[in-house]
Amino acid sequence: xxxxxxxxxxETECQDCYKCLRHCPVKxxxxxxxxxxxxxxxxxACGTCVEVCPVQAKRVRDDLGRARHLLxxxxxxxxxxxxxxxxxxxxxxxxxxxAALKKLGFTAVSETALGAQEVxxxxxxxxxxxxxxxxxxxxxxxxxxxxxxxxxxQAATITQVHSPVLAHCRLLHRIYGEDISIxxxxxxxxxxxESDRHADLLDLALTFADLREWLEKQRIExxxxxxxxxxxxxxxxxxxxxxxxxxxxxxxxxKAYGDFPxxxxxxxxxxxxxxxxxxxxxxxxxxxxxxxxxxx
Length: 296
Prior knowledge:
Blueprint: E1 7-9, H1 19-23, E2 29-32, E3 35-38, H2 48-52, E4 58-60, H3 64-71, E5 77-81, H4 85-88, H5 94-104, E6 108-111, H6 113-128, E7 133-136, H7 141-150, H8 164-176, E8 181-186, H9 190-197, E9 204-207, H10 208-217, H11 249-255, E10 264-269, H12 271-278, E11 289-295
Parallel strand pairs: 5-6, 5-8, 7-11, 8-9, 10-11
Antiparallel strand pairs: 1-4, 2-3
Helix pairs in contact: 6-8, 6-11
């Protein structure tokens, strides 16, 4: 059992059905002592094994204890909130969500979409140059890890800008100081891996499932909260970037910056489609600026 990696197996629950082994898109499961175990060095944290396990023997690392410990320190702790929270918690206003997170002990709440705006501006500037070649998005941590591990010949084409969440963390540190802590909330398991690798920017990444569990334990009912006037996003509301979680959303925000001559855009969703689209593709043969949005 490896609790350090974001996904692990509870051996006592594993019933040796090997469903996870059959469904893993990168074959990152091996049998040890009769149990199906995750191979961290091969895994891309896509969460497929967690989804298909019929007995929930595949688990996502529980970081709630670490989050609560962080709130008990003397540091100000800010939330980076993924834009997909609106679909995860329908009917809840942004003011109610901010108020709820403050009740948990967080100093303030900010939209990850602010980081997405910075990423969009940087990529749009690159596309505006009109330089022929391939540029692959860095937004999806599972997709990025997949390229490094399974299509290393394309790793150099990944944009050199941070992912939206890391760009957002840099923004918050610039505004509120290097001594603050930041916790991300979103739908993605792989963000836990991203926080592990960039602890200097992002202290913890929790899923929306983690947030629901935390709110339930604290008996905080989102729908019953009456927010105060100061329960708003800081330092400001995002103007764009909210559609990043939607397939093709990143491309749409880039296009909003201008109609760049000869630029081409492609969305590849799913690891198998990423392989089909990029395997064997030589950037040197591309005669126009090509941006590829990759989503695992």
